[in-house]
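User: Can you predict the 3D structure for this chain?
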Amino acid sequence: TASTRELKMLVNSHFVPASDVELGRQLAEFGKAAGVKTRLDRVAHLQLPAVLAGEVQGQKGHDLVAVGNSNPHLYTKHLENLDGLHEKIGKAGGGWTTRGVGMGGDGHVKAIPWYFISFPLALRVDLIAEIGENLPDTWDDVHRIGTKLKKKGHPLGIQLAHSVDSNMILRGIMWSYGAKTVDEDSKTVAVNSKESIEAFKFVAALYKDAMTSEVLAWDDRNNNVCLNSGKCSMILNPISAYRSAVKAKTMVEGTDRLVHHAIQHIMPPTGPAGRHMAASFNNAGIWKFAKEKELAKEFLASHFSKDNARKHLEASKGYNQPVLAGNALHPLYASNSKYYFAPFIGWDTHAIGWPGVPTAAVQTVVDQYLLPDAMASVAVGKASAEDAVKKLEKQMKRIYKRAAKREG
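Assistant: Here is the predicted structure, written as C-alpha cells:
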C-alpha cells in the first residue's frame, strides 16, 4: 500500500549542518505531497565509501545516494542511467557549467552533478596594497607578489602534502600550464609532456621564493590557520577559511582591525593555457536495486528546481556551488562582496581526471597523493622536474593498467 512506501536518501554530513536540515525539509515536503514516508540518513564523509560499498554488496539500502567525484564511474553497473533526467534538469537550469561530472564507465550519466566546493584565491588585500601591488591575476603575479610578501614575513601557503587541497590546487596549476595527467579518453596517461615539466618547475620556484617549508606537512586545515592567524598572505581554499576567520575574530597585529575584513576572494590565477581549477564534486545517484526509482527521480527534479536549489545553496552559506548555470547568479553572492568570484568560477572548475571524466583509476592516483609527492620532490631539490614527471607517469601507468584489467 502507498502508506508503507518510503523514499530513503543517504548523504555525507555537510560542513554546514543547515544544508542537511534544508535538504531534509525538502525531502519531507516532497514525501507529504506524494503521500509517502521519507528518510534522510547522514554519515561522516570518510565513512560514506564503506557504506556505499556495503549497499552494493548486499544489493539493498537507500534509493538515493550521494556519490562524489569518481563514485558514479566506480559503481557504473549498480547505478541507474539518468541521461534523460540530466538533460531535463540541465535544460531547465540554464545548462551545466562542467562536463563529464557524474558519468559512468559506459558513457551514460549515472548521477546528477549536485554541487562543488570551489578553490578561489583567498588573500590579504591590505598586505598586497602595502607593497604597492594590485591583486594578482596570473600565476606569475602570484609568484612576484608572493616573493615580496615572504620577505616581509607573510608567505603564500599552498600545500605540497597529503591533503585534498593539495590534490586540487596542483591539478589546477597543471591545467593552467596546458598540462594534463590523462587524455580526454580518460584512459591514456598523458602526464609526461613539456607542459607538465614547466608546471613542475613553476611550483618549485613558487615554493622556494614565496612559501614556508611548513607546506610540506600541511593538512587541509593548516593553510586556513596560516591565513586567519595573520601570517599567510595568500592561500587557495574554499570559503571555509574566511568563515573560520569571521568566527575567530583575529586582529591584525598591532592594530584594532579584524583580519577577516582584509581577506578577499578572487578567481584562481590564470596561466599560459588559461584559468583552470579543480574541485570536489558532489553528485546524486539512484541505485539500480532501489525500491523507489521513479519517486527518487521525481524528488531530484523537484530539488533541482530553481527555488529549491537556491534555498539549499543559501542554507550552505554559499559553500555549495551549483553546477547549473542558471543557479550560479545567486542573490547571496550579490549581497556580499567576498563572494564576487562565485557566479563565474564554475566555468573554470573541473573534476579530477579532466579533460576526461572522474574515473576509479584517477581516484586511486588522488588517494595515493602521487601528484603532491612528485611536485614536492622537485620543490625540495630531491628530483629534477623531468625525472619527477617520468616517475609519476610510471606510477600512473601501473594504476591505469590495473584498472583497465578490472574493467575488461
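The first strand starts at residue 6 and ends at 12. The radius of gyration is 22 Å.
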